[in-house]
Specification:
- By secondary structure, the protein is mainly α.
- The chain is built from six helices and no strands.
- It has one domain.
Length: 118
Amino acid sequence: MDYINAFWVGGVICALVQILMEKTKMLPGRIMVLLVCTGAVLSAINLYQPFVEYAGAGASVPLLGFGNTLFKGVREAVDENGFIGIFMGGFTASAVGISAALVFGYLASLIFNPKMRK
């Protein structure tokens, strides 16, 4: 049942984002920032963690989950280090994901020989 919940929750999130992209004139970059900020705000008011516990990867993998991860990292760093934790918590919590994206993106560019659009 965990796989089914992850599948339908992730699908609903992606479908809502697709509708947002189609029905508004917002650029994809702004939509991505909106999703990350929404995930952080939902985490701040303690609404996102129960959602992650129910849906698992269906809620933690999309960009809403990245906002949740950033907020959790900042909260933990502030508890441990005080004010300076605001600046270091997000980096600490998301370092592995960002590093993996950079490494795999670089490897894909070596394998597939990307070309600039004209």
